[in-house]
Amino acid sequence: MKAKIQMLRLFLALFLVLGIQIHSHESAYSTDKESTSGSTKKIYLQDYSPPDFLIPKTQLHFDLGPQRTIVCSELQVVRQKKDVALVLNAEDIEILHVMINGEELDTKDYIHLDNQLIIYSVPEDDSFSLRILNEFNPEENKELSGLYYADGMFCTQCESEGFRRITPFLDRPDVMSCYTVTILADPVQFPTLLSNGNLIHAKQIPDGRFEVTYDDPFPKPSYLFGLIAGDLAVVTDEFVTMSGKNVALEIHVEHGQEGRVSHAMDSLKRAMAWDEEVFGREYDLETLRLAAVRAFNMGAMENKGLLIFNETALIGDGSCVTDGCLYWIEDVVAHEYFHNWTGNRVTVRDWFQLALKEGLTNFRNQEFSADMNSRTVTRINDVQVLRTRQFPEDAGPLAHPVLPKKFTTPDDSYSCTTYLKGAEIYRMMLNLLGKERFRQGMDQYFATNDGKAVTIQHVLAAMQSVADRDISQFARWFDQPGTPLVEVSMAYFEDKKEAHLTVKQLPPKVVISHDFKPFYFPLAVGLMDDDGFDFVLDCDEYNLDTTINLHIDKDEETFVFKNIPSRPIPSLLRNFSAPVKLDYPYTQGELCLLMAKDSDLFNRYDASQRLATMELENCISAIQAGTSYVFSEKLLKAYGNALNDDACDNALRAEILTLPSVDNLIADMEIVDIDAAVKARERLKTAIANRYEDALVFMVDELNIDTPYQYNAVDTGKRALKNACLSYLGSLPGGHYLTLVAKHFESSNNMTDTLAAISILCQYDHKLAHEALHTFHCFWENDPLVLNNWITAHASCDHENLVDDLKALCFHETFDIHNPNNMRCLLRAFFRNLKLFHNISGKGYEFLVDKIIEIDEFNRIMATMFVAAFELYPRLDSVRQELMRAQLERLCDPSLSKETRGAATRILNSLKEENQLTGTSPAA
Ligand SMILES: [Zn+2]
Questions:
Q1: Which of the residues 207, 429, 661, 830 has an alpha carbon 20 to 30 A from that of 14?
Q2: Residue-range domain boundaries for the chain
Q3: Which of 336, 358, 655, 899 is catalytic?
Q4: Which CA distances in Å does 887 have to 37, 209, 830, 880?
Q5: Catalytic annotation present for 336
């Protein structure tokens, strides 16, 4: 399933396990018997037990109706353990009858209790057949989990535990089954009927309805079951695999959107070819179907042979979505496709192992995107997201190991840590083992585990089998939470011509020091002379090179570099070789040199960020002290040089010129001061714009493209740099350049430039922003997909009446709170608008909580997701903390879902935990 950041599915579905004795075999894990508070019962990895029964063969028959859908499931059940009842998961469904080996059971032979169907009288035979007839109302399924009916179509979402809402089943990933699925529906309303696998039969039955049957020969867990029924248009293509097989490709979209999927189709074909070339993985079914759905809780879902996408992750061309969005579509399509091997053919044994499929698949699509686009800029974007989303998570109340040891529901493991840090772990394996060995390790992993449900241990074992040293220490990346701090110091010995680098690992904040065990990771280093040229590095057992991947595996270690003629400047953690926080006492002058000359382009960018952060931190202190601050000449010059640095392409220059985000600036503050961070950032931006006004105007003109829109590296780079320059100009006092920005809005022929202009206007001028938003709305009035941007832009505005404006927007005809995309655009953009969300009036917190309470009634999955916006709670000043506490307590009301209450309680408790650690009493 694709998170990719903005869509990151932090929480999904539910997991209710009863603690009573008879149910002790129903689940893969038993619950915490000590716990008495119903909402926070913990499930432990160590309690995992294999299933009592297996279901090798599953036949499903769907009689689809929006208000009443009847499912008949015929299961071949194989007993694994003697003397136990068969306990199936079954939630929000009505059982009509149960048959075993052709004989109907009496209702006293089974019981349907809450979320389980318990069948007492199952034969002691090794194998028997079970037939269950059940029904439910898909239209009332507003949670969009299981099979639901919305916007005129049926759709499924079964990961992680939605299948139990369709039919009773052993709904756990280690029960893999081969599925045959028959769908019966009215052909006028639902001419499109899709499921997993190969279509083996389609016919009209005597009552006029249509019936299709799909067969999926590959065993899969129930969370990969997929079904779509609706009236969709189809765009077709084909792909010839490396062994010469023809695969039919289909993209199913709403009528009228057919012209907007060529980018997705091309991305799919590129991903299929790339996976063959880089990982040797070939597609295995006759057809691969992709479908776009409007009412979808997350980004996309990798159901076997039937990839289901939120329409925003599949549909788009340059006129209606931005360059960033086209990049995202390529990335998500690839991610879902790559799951076919990492997730589907080899799946997870239990939900603690989520990083096995998500971290690995995320790493694979990051590498794919790097090959399709600028490798450096792709890496920069991935690291930015890691630093702004995962690092804070890893240091806060939601910190957990990549392989969690316990959770309240499997949904807890859908986090930035699993996806993003998970991906970094596989990247480190690649860096430590080298390309060739890493590929051999992956081949070994697929060969041994194909068709199985496995654990993180299995991938580590495969890598160990090809490694030339013991890599068991590497497993700590899965077991220890927190971002490690790495301190590096250097001594230079003129007489011996030696540079000594000492590397020290310090325990992350969330790990108690005496429990900390050092990680094993690659630290890529280079040493530069005063002119920015790399020295050739001569270090013990490493091969001579200008960049060396040092293997770090101790608390502290010193590396000696010989034959270094003069005191070098170290370039550390090149290409961000490990997910650590690195500390080295760089001088401003050294950072300027790295920013201008480092042969590692990622580190040029990183130096720009360190340089600006250093300066901004000083400015923030001055603001807090009420004194004035003058930005240093060296810094301003470095930005002037970067503006004209032809060695970097336009896209990279745009990244270097973009100042560190407010999220980054507050990341290390003990008590966050958002207002000061926003002010300092704005001041530096204006100072740079002031100094280079003429150059910026010249570049905006020079980079403007007046030919028809094209999505390619050259043009996207030009647009990115032009809009970065416009954003600087927009910050100049008096708003002199905002009319220029408005002109660019009017003349734009693509969504990238249009939204960039709107975003600048929304930040600086309410009136011009309002006019632009009005024009935008009139133009795209009939295109709900595009109008999501209109909602986002509104919520990103910087003006004091924003909360009132947003309250009014909730009644606008364009906005529908039941539409997950509308909801997400509004609320996510708002809580990321840090200055306004955390406004001292407290209105922002109140507004968000009002909305969460409203959403909780019909979509608790989404409601829970938005609670994460309050994560800064323990680090706020006492006034804001008190305002937030009052709102969080509203979310603990017993009338709300246990998921939402649980998320709010966890955040409230995080302050208590922090106070216990530091020995202080809570604010207020
Ligand atoms: Zn995924």
A1: 830
A2: 485-578, 782-924
A3: 336
A4: 22, 52, 16, 11
A5: yes
